[in-house]
């Protein structure tokens, strides 16, 4: 796995002392894709230098639960060493309509399917996180969280690669713009890590 997504083995997984947030954490190519055709991620998990990996360690140490999409679960189980290179092995939830009878498994870790609306799914994940952060993995689940006004922050590792086709970072034709406030920007190796707070609408 690329150093940009490989947390230090010594990272702490202690619970956050404050109320956890709902974060979307992702990697982004310079031309706006989070995965290539057929969910290909080789452009990330190859020779990209992620520097110290400080942000990854911080994120993994803050996670109490994951909320992911079906494709993310499939890719992490089949093609990758597991969530965050196997560093996170806590509770995870896969949002999926008409799920199979057997629960989702990622590299030997059993999760739970949720065939529910996004608000109820987020509530269940937050309960499982027990005060720590819930991290969203996957563009479709993240879009639903954004549209429902549930997402607190977006953390993006911009990779100096042009992918050309695949899964777009955010795609909502005809939708109104969603305003973000810059929290931080820093360079880690070859990646630029951008962190944004999602600006709340007046009715939320």
Description:
The protein is α/β, with parallel strands linked by helices and 204 residues long. The protein has a single domain, classed as Dihydrofolate Reductase, subunit A (3-Layer(aba) Sandwich), CATH 3.40.430. The protein contains four helices and twelve strands; from the N terminus they run ββαβαββββαβαββββ. It has helices spanning 54-62, 70-78, 118-129, 139-147, and strands at residues 22-29, 33-35, 63-69, 92-95, 105-106, 109-110, 112-114, 133-137, 153-159, 167-168, 180-188, 191-198. The protein has an eight-stranded mixed β-sheet with strand order 7-4-3-8-1-9-12-11. Strands 2-10 form a two-stranded antiparallel sheet. It has a two-stranded antiparallel ribbon with strand order 5-6. The radius of gyration is 16 Å and the shape is globular.
Give the CATH class. Alpha Beta
Query: How would a textbook summarize the main sheet?
Result: 8 strands, mixed
Silhouette: globular
- Helix share of residues? 10-25%
CATH topology type = Dihydrofolate Reductase, subunit A
How large is the share of residues in beta strands?
25-35%
Radius of gyration, rounded? 16 Å
Distance between the termini: 39 Å
| CATH architecture grouping | 3-Layer(aba) Sandwich
Number of strands: 12
Determine the structural class based on helices, strands and strand pairing.
alpha/beta
Give the strand order, joined by hyphens, for the main sheet.
Answer: 7-4-3-8-1-9-12-11
Q: Say which CATH homologous superfamily is assigned.
A: Dihydrofolate Reductase, subunit A
Q: Count of helices?
A: 4
Task: Give helix and strand order, one letter per element, not per position.
Answer: EEHEHEEEEHEHEEEE
Task: State the low-pLDDT regions, or none.
Answer: 1-5, 8-17
């Amino acid at each position: 796995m690329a150093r940009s997504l490989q947390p230090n083995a010594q990272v702490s997984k202690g619970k956050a002392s404050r109320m956890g947030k709902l974060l979307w954490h992702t990697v982004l190519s310079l031309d706006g894709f989070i995965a290539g055709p057929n969910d290909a991620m080789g452009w990330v998990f190859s020779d990209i230098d992620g520097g110290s990996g400080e942000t990854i360690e911080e994120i993994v140490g803050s996670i109490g639960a994951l909320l992911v999409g079906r494709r993310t679960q499939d890719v992490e189980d089949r093609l990758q060493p597991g969530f965050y290179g196997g560093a996170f092995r806590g509770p995870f939830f896969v949002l999926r309509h008409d799920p199979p009878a057997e629960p989702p498994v990622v590299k030997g870790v059993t999760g739970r399917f949720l065939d529910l609306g996004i608000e109820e799914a987020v509530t269940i994940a937050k309960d499982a996180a027990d005060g720590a952060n819930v991290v969203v993995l996957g563009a479709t689940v993240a879009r639903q969280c954004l549209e429902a006004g549930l997402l607190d922050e977006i953390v993006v590792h911009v990779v100096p690669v042009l992918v050309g086709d695949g899964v777009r970072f955010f795609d909502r034709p005809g939708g109104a713009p969603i305003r973000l406030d810059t929290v931080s920007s820093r360079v880690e190796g070859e990646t630029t890590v951008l962190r944004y707070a999602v600006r709340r609408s007046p009715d939320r």
